[in-house]
Write a structure and sequence with these properties.
Blueprint: H1 55-58, H2 61-82, H3 84-115, H4 121-174, H5 177-180, H6 183-227, H7 231-275, H8 277-285, H9 289-341, H10 347-392, E1 409-417, E2 427-435, E3 439-444, H11 450-457, E4 468-471, E5 474-475, H12 481-485, E6 488-491, H13 502-507, H14 518-528, H15 530-535, H16 557-570, E7 575-579, H17 587-600, E8 607-611, E9 623-628, E10 631-636, H18 638-644, H19 647-666
Parallel strand pairs: 3-8, 3-9, 6-7, 7-8
Antiparallel strand pairs: 1-2, 1-4, 4-5, 9-10
Helix pairs in contact: 2-3, 2-10, 3-4, 3-6, 3-10, 4-6, 4-10, 6-10, 7-9, 7-10, 14-16, 18-19
Bound molecules: adenosine-5'-triphosphate.
Adenosine-5'-triphosphate is lined by residues 1-3, 5, 181, 419, 422, 426, 444, 446-452, 627.
Length: 667
């Protein structure tokens, strides 16, 4: 398919006119990327993978707190739907573990009470031993419970990721083809795949950590409340400065990470170009390695500087945080001392309160850190889930009516089709009738709509604006879309080079990689010329057609084209579309394919559509449709069109003259 739209009806023999837009001379300094003194992350800011980076740093604490419950519910629901027992285990074990922490603290207070009691020291220590054993018991139980949480979490997390990935691929692999052509959809799909699925894996454990930190905080608050209600405001006094310092430091880290991440991604572009097999030949022939390495070096130097800057700033922040936290702790302990002096609470309870306040500060710092992570990562997961929801609305028709196994007549009536984002239609009022047993050809200049029309015939696109395609009188919109696609064998331009065995490269057209019809496979390989290609491979049918795998083989473009034709023939469908199948084949191979497909095996039950720029190959076709600007401007047999003396005759004569002139020169 051509990306150029030159459907403005130039006479075939004329040269293209001068371009209207004049291109100015470029500058002598090549802007290969962000410049040395500019912000190196600029060019990447709007890229799909960075839209939510740094979101947690930008959100206010109130926004953060408002969204967290919704996130926890959503992730909880995902986990619940994936593995109920494991999810239940995580919740119950986590709650029990938090209770153990609180009981442990209470038991520690009891130990202190014994130690601070009246009497000789050995007696007090002896009296404290049973309580000490209780503390050990609580701590050991908590360790066991936390191990249980980790095990249950290890069960549920991979399942969530696998379920989301399967769902994502099932939905995206089936959305209608014209949606896939939409660049915005493509960006969203990549973003969801790259980021959403990645963070979906991490977020479960982060939500569990969040819950653990929150429960820890609640537990210690409960212990303090039991010791003395006046200790609760004291807890606030102690944890608020620590919380504020933690929020600041978490935000600074997110800002820096966004920058660092952008640099890393940019450097990866260069590593990829230096490593990638597809770029290797051109890189060497352009002798461009040095230039790319220089850019790589420039970026890695910037990353090293950014790393150092990050390290220094996080050290400063942590010092500032500790200073603020220290002031809070100092104030708390002063107030605690005053309470002890005033006799509000016994010494043991005061010591217990110190332990509880320290535990609460640790839980709070963790809570702040994890909630920032969860907030940001949940945005990616939400993005993935929203994308999946959108894909659900973009699935093909799944009507109950399957397409028939054979077709006598296909009719296109006033068919129009415009690609998403385009203003001009690619097809504009096409009407034609195709009969079983016929071979028809679509010809015309680049961008005239031939491939689009073929894709419409294949059920890959749907007609728009009231146009209809009917199979034996049944509107294709009443047929199940995938069953219709299964009835059309397609050899498209730029066929996919499946990295499978030679045999699987054929069977895939019937929707299987594991089951083959051996006789049909051999017939298809013979008719397409792929027989010699496959026979010459060590391993024959089983040879792996990809250099990416050990023992794999690479084929030339023409050899791949033969495999693609074989794949189309193997499908053995009532409609066969060949979209420039022989463009990269040598002349003999091309001749052999046309002989086999058009002359040797005419099938009375098949409609064959051939798209070709080599007009000699369309001569034997029963009917030729000439496209221009999305319309059919002429149609008839080769002879009728030659007699007409129109566009087809001009194109044909131009090609034939070219050959004759060559032949004359060499004679
Ligand atoms: N996926 C797409 N998205 C947007 N526009 C497209 C897409 N494919 C084709 N077009 C546009 O639709 C018009 C018809 O393209 P089409 O590929 O059908 O032409 P064609 O006759 O097969 O061309 P060629 O001979 O170069 O293969 C062109 O203007 C082209 O730019």
């Amino acid at each position: 398919m051509s990306g150029l739209d030159d459907a403005d009806g130039l006479p075939p023999a004329s040269l293209p006119g001068p371009r209207r837009a004049r291109l100015p001379l470029p500058s002598a300094v090549v802007p290969g990327g962000p410049q040395h003194d500019g912000d190196i992350t600029d060019g990447l800011e709007e890229a799909y993978w960075s839209v939510y980076d740094g979101a947690a740093a930008k959100a206010t604490v109130r926004q953060l707190l408002a969204r967290l419950p919704r996130i926890v519910r959503r992730i909880g629901r995902l986990a619940w739907n994936t593995d109920r027992p494991a999810t239940l285990a995580v919740v119950l074990l986590q709650l029990a573990s938090a209770a153990m922490t609180a009981f442990g603290l209470m038991a520690s207070v009891a130990v202190l009470r014994e130690l601070f009691a009246e009497g000789p020291t050995p007696d007090r220590v002896r009296a404290a031993v049973p309580q000490l054993l209780v503390v050990v018991g609580f701590l050991a139980t908590r360790a066991l419970l936390e191990a249980g949480v980790a095990v249950a979490q290890a069960r549920v997390t991979p399942k969530i990721r696998a379920a989301l990935e399967t769902e994502f691929l099932t939905l995206t692999a089936h959305v209608r083809l014209e949606i896939v052509d939409d660049a915005d959809w493509h960006d969203e799909a990549y973003r969801a795949n790259d980021r959403g699925l990645f963070y979906a894996r991490q977020i479960v454990s982060q939500v569990v950590s969040l819950a653990a930190a929150l429960l820890g905080l609640v537990g210690t608050a409960g212990v303090l409340g039991v010791l003395h209600p006046a200790l609760l405001p004291l807890l606030l006094l102690s944890v608020l400065p620590v919380g504020a310092a933690a929020v600041r430091s978490a935000r600074a880290r997110f800002h820096s990470f966004k920058r660092w991440n952008a640099l890393q991604r940019r450097v990866r572009v260069f590593s990829w170009l230096l490593l990638e097999r597809d770029a290797a030949a051109e890189l060497r022939s352009d002798t461009a390695q040095g230039a790319l390495l220089a850019e790589h070096h420039r970026l890695t130097t910037r990353i090293a500087e950014e790393d150092t800057r990050l390290g220094v700033s996080s050290a400063k922040l942590s010092l500032a945080g500790r200073a603020v936290g220290g002031i809070g702790t100092g104030t708390t302990y002063t107030a605690l001392g005053a309470m002890l002096i005033a006799g509000w609470l016994p010494l043991a309870a005061g010591a217990g309160a110190v332990l509880a306040i320290q535990a609460a500060q640790t839980s709070l710092t963790r809570l702040v850190d994890v909630s920032h992570l969860v907030y940001e990562h949940a945005m990616w997961v939400d993005d993935l889930l929203a994308f999946q929801e959108r894909c659900r609305a973009l699935q093909p028709r799944r009507s109950g009516l399957p397409a028939p196994g054979t077709v006598r007549i296909i009719t296109l009536d006033d068919v129009t089709f415009t690609y998403p984002g385009k203003d001009t239609p690619a097809l504009n009022g096409i009407s034609m009738t195709l009969h079983a047993g016929q071979t028809v050809a679509f010809v015309g200049v680049n961008g005239s709509g031939k491939s689009t029309c073929a894709r419409l015939l294949a059920g890959l696109y749907e007609p728009q604006e009231g146009g209809t395609v009917t199979w034996d009188g049944v509107n294709v919109l009443d047929l199940d879309a995938e069953s219709l696609q299964a009835r059309v064998g397609c050899v498209l331009q730029d066929p996919v080079r499946f990295p499978f065995s030679a045999l699987a490269n054929l069977t895939v057209s019937r929707g299987t990689l594991t089951e083959a019809d051996p006789r049909r496979a051999l017939e298809a390989a013979r008719a397409s010329g792929a027989e010699q290609v496959i026979a010459a491979l060590p391993g024959g049918w089983e040879a792996l057609l990809s250099k990416r795998f050990r023992g794999g083989h690479e084929l030339s473009a023409g050899q791949w084209a033969k495999i693609a034709v074989a794949r189309g023939l193997y499908k053995n469908a009532p409609v066969l579309l060949l979209d420039e199948p022989t463009a990269s084949m040598d002349p003999r191979a091309e001749h052999a394919v046309y002989e086999a497909v058009l002359r040797d095996n005419p099938r009375s039950d098949q409609i064959t559509v051939l798209i070709s720029h080599r007009l000699a190959s369309v001569v034997p076709c029963d009917r030729v449709f000439v496209f221009d600007g999305g319309r059919v401007i002429e149609s008839g047999t080769h002879q009728e069109l030659m007699n007409l003396g129109g566009e087809y005759a001009a194109m044909f004569t131009l090609q034939a003259d070219g050959y004759r002139a060559e032949a004359g020169e060499t004679a």
